[in-house]
């Protein structure tokens, strides 16, 4: 009959074996199932992810296979490791909130604008599986919009119901930037494409459509389906800036 000591040794061996198996088999998930890329909305048109990686944290390997748009909220140097490739020698990027030191007699570089917008569209043709590690001492955070639509090229912003000039435009997205003064409200309107509104500065606002949204800090967002009447109001005491993302549909 096995002794208690023998049973403990058996259990320890199983634990060590299991750990070795886990080390040899990296977990790979779709980007919207990766814990640091928290999916906060899924609709027939789009997925919205709130991406947060704290200092020292590493994500699972995750796969990108569709176009994506990013609204940056805070930055920190990242190490990006592509599955099957050697790790990079140095991290990419630097904290957005840390301006460069000025040269003698010069002036400091201003930090990037809040809510900087970028987009990667190559994933639809060349999927990528990678993981990221926050190598800095600040939070890396962004709101990501993944389209589930085929995109389009011919519809103009005016035809889609927008009055602003897009800051970024490609086949799958157009992004617009606007601000509201205290007490200011947009007119009630509707767009022919789904819309994600992301708050990128501090303040308070409310969005009204099929559902009412309270926007109380940078990183809050509101989603409106195509053809849904909606408006946005600044309910605070300071100006608030937003990025409005048009998720483009197939040309009609």
Key traits:
mainly beta, 5-stranded antiparallel β-sheet, 2 domains, Jelly Rolls, 252 residues, globular
List the helices and strands and how they pair.
Layout: H1 4-24, E1 28-30, E2 37-42, E3 46-53, E4 61-64, E5 68-74, E6 78-82, E7 117-120, E8 128-134, E9 140-147, E10 168-169, E11 173-180, E12 195-199, E13 205-208, E14 212-215, E15 221-224, E16 231-234, E17 240-247
Parallel strand pairs: 1-4
Antiparallel strand pairs: 2-3, 3-9, 4-8, 5-7, 5-9, 6-8, 10-11, 11-17, 12-15, 12-17, 13-14, 13-16
What does this protein structure show overall?
The chain is mostly beta strands. The protein is 8% helix and 36% strand. It has 1 helix and 17 strands. The chain has one helix at residues 4-24, and strands at residues 28-30, 37-42, 46-53, 61-64, 68-74, 78-82, 117-120, 128-134, 140-147, 168-169, 173-180, 195-199, 205-208, 212-215, 221-224, 231-234, 240-247. The longest helix has 21 residues, at 4-24. The termini are far apart. Residues 5-24 and 94-104 have low confidence and may be disordered.
Helix-strand makeup class: mainly beta
Q: Please give the largest β-sheet.
A: 5 strands, antiparallel
Number of helices: 1
What spatial form do the alpha-carbon principal axes imply? globular
**Any low-confidence stretches, pLDDT <50, length ≥5?**
5-24, 94-104
- The neighbouring-strand order within the major sheet is 2-3-9-5-7
Classified by CATH, the class of the largest domain is Mainly Beta
Number of domains: 2
Q: Short description, anyone?
A:
The protein is mainly beta. The chain is built from one helix and 17 strands. The protein folds into two domains: 28-96 and 110-147, Sandwich (Jelly Rolls), CATH 2.60.120; 168-247, Jelly Rolls (Sandwich), CATH 2.60.120.10.
């Amino acid at each position: 009959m096995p002794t208690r000591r023998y049973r403990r040794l058996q259990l320890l061996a199983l634990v060590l074996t299991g750990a070795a198996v886990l080390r040899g088999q990296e977990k790979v998930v779709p980007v919207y199932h990766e814990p640091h890329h928290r999916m906060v909305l899924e609709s027939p048109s789009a997925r919205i992810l709130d991406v947060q990686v704290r200092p020292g944290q590493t994500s699972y390997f995750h796969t990108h296979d569709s176009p994506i748009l990013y609204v940056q909220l805070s930055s920190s140097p990242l190490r990006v490791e592509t599955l099957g490739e050697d790790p990079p020698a140095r991290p990419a990027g630097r904290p957005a909130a840390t301006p460069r030191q000025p040269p003698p007699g010069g002036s400091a570089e201003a930090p990037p604008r809040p809510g900087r917008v970028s987009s990667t569209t190559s994933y639809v043709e060349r999927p990528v599986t990678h993981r990221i590690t926050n190598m800095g001492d600040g939070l890396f955070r962004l709101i990501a919009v993944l389209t589930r639509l085929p995109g389009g090229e011919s519809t103009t912003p005016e035809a889609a119901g927008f009055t602003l000039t897009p800051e970024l435009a490609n086949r799958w997205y157009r992004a617009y930037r606007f601000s509201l003064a205290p007490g200011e409200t947009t007119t009630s309107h509707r767009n022919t494409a789904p819309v994600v509104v992301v708050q990128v500065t501090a303040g308070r606002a409310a969005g009204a459509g099929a559902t009412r949204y309270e926007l109380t800090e940078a990183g809050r967002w509101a989603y409106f389906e195509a053809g849904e009447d909606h408006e946005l109001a600044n309910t605070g005491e300071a100006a608030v800036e937003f990025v409005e993302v048009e998720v483009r549909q197939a040309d009609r």
